[in-house]
Design brief:
It is a single chain. Helix content is 43%, strand content 18%. By secondary structure, it is α/β, with parallel strands linked by helices. The chain has three domains: 179 residues, NAD(P)-binding Rossmann-like Domain (Rossmann fold, 3-Layer(aba) Sandwich), CATH 3.40.50.720; 97 residues, N-(1-d-carboxylethyl)-l-norvaline Dehydrogenase, domain 2; 146 residues, Thiol Ester Dehydrase, Chain A, CATH 3.10.129.10. Strands 3-2-1-4-5-6-7-8 form an eight-stranded mixed beta sheet, with helices on both faces. Strands 9, 10, 11, 12, 13 and 14 form a six-stranded antiparallel beta sheet that branches. A hairpin with a 4-residue loop joins strand 13 and strand 14. It is globular and about 80 Å long. It starts with a strand and ends in a 17-residue tail after the last helix. 31% of the residues are buried.
């Protein structure tokens, strides 16, 4: 993976690809590019720790290349994120394709320039697409993929596959258009916002409140058209258009004109924006933004709506990729899952909060289920195992930085249930920190009730239980909590 440009967007791309396990070579003429990208990656790493409990791949390595040619040499995919100047991008892409492998795909992060114009200086323009992301690139899943007049359809398909592999949701545009889809919508709102500040109708803060406290909440999971369809009541969209369509002829908006950015208007906007920031640095604002985006994404993930659906799909791929399906299990061999205690897991006592033990055990259970064949296809068919009972025993404290090993023993299986026992160890000392005994129930997720497991997972579970049958029964298994006397 090669990245050209280390600004806000280029740094965001670097973070997303690195955290997804890609090795990245990046070139930017800025001598401070490495430090700036490292700061973005650290922000992204912090956000991803809160975003998902799924096991992430080992991080890729970042290499700061001294030249464009060094960056693209051997790269299968090149993402250009240079400043939004057409001639500059044309020259960079023309130089890059000479030094890159002949089968490399090129993508431009441009937010508005047509790919047909960016292809102008390329010897093989069929390899270029636009891959337009949104800031922060490492959290927002949308990327608009647009080909030019001479782009090969296969290039668009390959670019979309790359983006999906790092948890993004590509939107393939039917044809190229200035500004693509999302930016044209945002620009219309931006013009109106500028006019309202210029005409002293509302302040920057009031305009932001009008969006974030009202329609912005609906848009995050319903979009525009579905929102208006509901507004039409039982009669739907046809009734809404009949009732409110005539209002489109009223001169409410000023989209056909642009306010002049005079010194007075710029000063007013800057002053109001500074008031909104309330002294917070750009770094502080970015962390606040990321924390709140993570909270929204997690809520939407639970509903499998909007960007949350993309997060759910990404997590399922992570779990599938982490499944040790290729490694056979010998008789008496426990399953293994590894993790580490992150700094944010530690509570006021100086050791991992009790909820984190359950999190690690849950990840180990997910790894077990993946081995049994509970993959994305199986889940889509309406089958899954739910944990219906857990019994945790805490032995020692886990502290920040500890490397953890979970060993898993399958104690019993029937057509609907799994009896699982986990042991949590600190490595390399092999100190026993905690145990978890769990009962899992197979369910028909569409009917909402217990059901017989599918033949594939049931067979795999029985085979694994047979391999574990010769192991000693765990001391803590089958206990009940009671007070003597």
């Amino acid at each position: 993976m090669a990245l050209l440009g280390a600004g806000v967007i280029g740094g965001g791309w670097a973070a997303r690809f690195l955290l997804s396990g890609w090795d990245v070579r990046l070139h930017d003429p800025d001598p401070d590019a490495g430090r700036k990208v490292a700061a973005v990656v650290e922000n992204a790493r912090r956000a991803w720790r809160s975003l998902t409990l799924a096991p992430l791949p080992a991080e890729g390595t970042l290499t700061i290349a001294g030249s464009l040619e060094e960056a693209v040499a051997g790269a299968c995919f090149v993402q250009e994120s240079a400043p939004e100047r057409e001639q500059l991008k044309q020259e960079l892409l023309a130089r890059a394709e000479v030094a890159a492998p002949p089968d490399a795909v090129f993508a431009s992060s441009t937010s508005g320039l047509r790919p047909s114009r960016l292809q102008a200086e390329m010897a093989r323009p069929e390899r270029l697409v636009v891959g337009h992301p949104f800031n922060p690139v490492y959290l927002l899943p949308l990327v608009e993929v647009c080909g030019g007049e001479r782009t090969a359809p296969e290039s668009c398909r390959r670019a979309a596959a790359v983006y999906r592999s790092v948890g993004m949701a590509p939107l393939l545009l039917r044809r190229e258009i200035d500004g693509f889809v999302a930016d044209r919508l945002m620009e219309a709102m931006w013009r109106e916002a500028l006019w309202m500040v210029a005409d002293d109708v509302a302040t920057a803060s009031e305009i932001d409140d009008a969006i974030r406290l009202g329609p912005g909440l609906r848009w995050s999971f319903m979009g525009v058209f579905l929102t208006y369809r509901i507004a039409g009541g039982e009669a739907g969209m046809r009734h809404f258009l009949a009732q409110f369509g005539p209002a489109l002829q009223w001169p409410w908006t000023r989209l056909t004109d642009v306010p002049e950015l005079t010194d007075e208007l710029i000063g007013r906007i800057v002053e109001q924006s500074d008031e909104q920031a309330s002294g917070r640095s750009p770094e502080e604002l970015e962390r606040e933004r990321d924390d709140r985006l993570v909270a929204v994404l997690q809520a939407l993930r639970g509903a499998q709506a909007g960007a949350g659906a993309a997060i759910r799909d990404w997590e399922r791929r992570l779990l599938a990729d982490a499944a040790p399906n290729g490694r056979p299990v010998a008789a008496g061999q426990l399953l293994e899952h590894r993790a580490a205690v992150l700094p944010e897991w530690v509570d006021y006592n100086g050791h991992a909060h009790e909820s984190r033990y359950l999190q690690v055990f849950g990840d180990a259970t997910d790894a077990l289920l993946a081995r049994l064949g509970i993959d994305e296809q199986y889940l889509a068919g309406g089958g899954s195992y739910y944990t219906v009972e857990s019994h945790l025993t805490h032995r020692r404290e886990a502290r920040a930085g500890d490397r953890l090993l979970v060993t898993t023993q399958l104690l019993g299986v029937d057509e609907r249930r799994l009896h699982v026992f986990h042991s949590l160890w600190r490595e390399p000392e092999r100190d026993l920190l905690a145990t978890a005994e769990q009962m899992l129930l197979h369910v028909d997720t569409q009917a909402g009730r217990a059901a017989r497991a599918g033949d594939g997972p049931l067979t795999a579970a029985r085979e694994l239980a047979d391999l574990h049958a010769g192991l000693e029964w765990p001391e803590a298994a089958g206990r009940a909590i009671h007070l003597d006397g």
